[in-house]
Structures are given as structure tokens and as C-alpha cells.
Amino acid sequence: MDLRKRFKDVFGSDPVLVSKAPGRVNLIGEHTDYNDGFVMPIAIQYSTRVLAAPRDDGNMRLYAADFESEASFSLDRPIVKDDDRSWSHYEKGVVAEFLKRGDRLKGADLLIQGDVPIAAGLSSSASIEVATAGAIKALNRIAIDDLDLIRLCQRAENDFVGMKCGIMDQFISCLGREGHALFLDCRTLEYEITPFPSDVYGIVILNTKVKRELVGSEYNERRFECEKGVYLLRGRLPGIRALRDVSVADFDKWGRELPPRIRKRCEHVIRENQRVLDFRSGLKQNQRDRLGRLLVESHDSLRDLYEVSCSELDVMVNIAVGTDGVVGARMTGAGFGGCAVAIVQRGTEKRLEENVMRQYPAKTGIQPEVYVTAPSEGASIEFFK
Ligand code: GLA
Q1: Catalytic residue positions?
Q2: Which of 25, 41, 315, 348 could cross-link to 172 by cystine, CB 3.0-4.6 Å?
């Protein structure tokens, strides 16, 4: 699709820039970000593009090229949701957050198009937010640094869309680096760009094609359960602010006093944080078996303790770990459907793909999708000449 031509057809003018932001796959550290913990995602080669041009009035016009759907609103009136065009909530949320900061915005025409699989747990929403924010920032020459832009996008999702997500997705979409995984401390927002040895390992994303409507409410509920765990553990560990502050040793000592469900949620988060640290060192020391073990432990914990997997994800992970050349595999993202991620010995990607294409439909009746990927570059902006 020639997006510049499409822009002109829709809006009658030429775009001045394109802002691009990728989706992500998280290698390890699931449901840890909103507990002030650690994560280790990569940006993927699928992304959202927002083409943009300024307008002379105070109106915003949006066109979602993939849905051939238009939405418009005025910058001078309160921005509200439109459930018939729920795709526009991400863009609207971003604009609303700029206005809340007090930024003066010109009207604009935006064309949005993307190839990040939607509702698959690969952060198509964060990629839309970051690409939109990049376009608004560039069009209006707003002085905002990366960290504030990332936080703005997260608030758009928390407050406008209503999903109480953590900061991981927006962060990696903005700051991903080709050939590298990103180790992020979600409390301090300090991060380390960690080389991913693409000559040794390949990354394969396995889409179960299962979409769970409940993901939003279940997600917010898990968050609440973690907060409750912190509140209760504070009786024994007065200094803690988040589950991040609870060591595995402290949990072994006091965790049994928690109600069973809260205990399981806390145990997952506390041990998952440690797994991220171990994974980072395993990656640096090229300890294949250790990496594989950590991935599988993470999946088991998400299935049994955090209870965010589903039978199709479990089937997918089982097929993967039973395939020669696979180092390890786990569900990735919020869960309740979506994708699993597998790390494989380089050169065996095809074998895994073939195995999944044969076995998964036979076991579930569903046709999966498989994407071979590699760590890609984060968001960028290009001005047209
Ligand atoms: C979603 C959220 C992230 C993170 C993951 C689970 O992708 O947007 O902030 O919490 O789920 O790790």
C-alpha cells in the first residue's frame, strides 16, 4: 500500500512526516512491570506508521487505513470515547495527555497503518500510542524527552483506554535496539541494552490465535491482588513499597501467612523477578540450558501461580519444548491467549514452524501463525522532503 498516496486521497494534502513504532515480544519478566520489577523485551520487526500533516484549524482527523475508518474531534472540546471506532481511543488518549500537560497543539490529519498482529499480545496498542505521540511531538515541536513520552503513552492507556498496564510495552517500543534485548528496571527506569547473540539463537513467536475478551478485567484484578499482597506483607516487612522489594528468602519466610490466592500471585512475581536477573546473566554467559530452564519455569509459574495462561498456550509451549533445537518457550504478554515465544538454536526456526503448523491444528482445531523475528529498532521519525 502506498501510504503517501492514500493520505492524499483521504485528506487532500501531502503528509509532512511519518512516525513509526514497533510492537514487542517479552523474552522474560511477565506481570512484573507494574510491581516495580524487571523485564526483558525486544522490539519486533512489525510496526505502526502514522503519517501526519498539520491543519489550520483546531480539528484532528484520523484515518485507520487497515479498517478504512475515519474519526474526527476538536481540540477545543473534551475528548471522548467512541465505541463504534474503538481503534481511535489510543490516538485520542495520547492527544488528551498532551493537552493535560498544557502543550498547545495545532490541528492535524493522521493516517494510521500497521502490521503488528492485533490482540495477539504483541503490543499493537503501545505501538499505536508511541507512533502517534512521536507524530504529535514532531508536528508541534514539543520539547519532551523519551522517558516523559513513554510515561505519557502509558497514561493514555491507563486513563483513557482504561487498561492499567505497566510501562514495559511503551518503553521497548520507543527505545528498542536492533540486535539487542532491553533489560529494564521498572522502578528506576534504568535500562541496559543487552546484546542478543543472533548468531547463536533465533526467536520465534507462536500465535495461538486465541483472543480473550476478559484480558482487561482479569489484568486489572491481578494488579489489585498484587497490591493486596504488598499491603499484607507489610505487616512483617514494614519497609516494602512493591513486590519488587520482597526477596525470595523473605517470601519463603512470610509468604505462607498470606491467603492462598494472594500467595500464589506474589510468589510468581517475586520469583519471576529473580528469573529475569538470572536470564540476563545466562544470556551474557551463553548458558543455553539455564536460559531454557528459566523460560519453562516462567511459563509454569504463569500457568499455575498467576493463572493467566490457557489450554492453547500450554499446548503451544509443549509442542515447542518437544521440538529439537528449541532452547525454551513460554507464554508472553498479558496472557489469556495471544502468543508464546520460543528461543531456538539458530538454524532450527523452520523445524519449529513446521512442527507447530502440523501439531497445533491437530490438537486444538485452530490454525496458528508463526513469526520468525529478531530484535529490531525502536521508534523513529522521518520528515518527507
Ligand atoms: C501487558 C501490559 C504490560 C505488562 C504485560 C505483562 O502487555 O501492557 O505492561 O504488564 O502485559 O507482563
Answers
A1: 169
A2: 41
Concatenated DSSP letters of 251-313: HHHHGGGS-HHHHHHHHHHHHHHHHHHHHHHHHHTT-HHHHHHHHHHHHHHHHHTS----HHH
Distances (CA, A) of 156 to 129, 283, 376: 8, 34, 24
pLDDT for res 215? 64
Three cell numbers at 149?
513520552
Residue with CA nearest ligand 1 atom 9: 166
Query: How would DSSP label each residue in 68-123?
Result: TEEEEEETTS-----GGGGGGHHHHHHHHHHHHHT-----EEEEEEE-SPTTSSS-
Distance CA 317, CA 320 (A): 5
What residues are in contact with ligand 1 under a 6 Å CB criterion?
30-31, 33-34, 165-166, 168-169, 333-334
Q: What is the pLDDT of residue 1?
A: 74
Q: What is the pLDDT of residue 80?
A: 97
Q: Which of helix, strand or coil describes residue 351?
A: helix
Predicted local distance difference test score (pLDDT) of residue 121: 92
String of b and e for 173-201 (b: at least 16 CB within 10 Å)?
bbbbbeebbbbbebbeeebeebebeeeeb
Q: Out of 25, 27, 28, 31, give the residue to mutate to test ligand 1, the one with the largest number of ligand atoms within 8 Å of its CB.
A: 31
In angstroms, rounded to a whole number, what is the distance separating the alpha carbons of residues 38 and 214? 25
Kindly report, residue by residue over 141-193, the tens digit of the pLDDT. Answer: 999 999 999 999 999 999 999 989 999 999 999 999 999 999 999 999 999 99
* CA of 157, closest atom in ligand 1: 8
In one letter, which amino acid is 369? E
- Name the residue of 33, 130, 299, 330 to mutate for ligand 1: max ligand atoms within 8 A of Cβ: 33
Radius of gyration in angstroms for the set of CA atoms belonging to the chain, rounded to a whole number: 21
222 in Cβ contact with 31 (< 8 Å): yes
Which atom of ligand 1 is found nearest the CA of 167? 9
H/E stretch holding 224:
helix 215-233
Residues of the chain with confidence (pLDDT) below 70: 213-215
Q: Which pTM was predicted?
A: 0.97
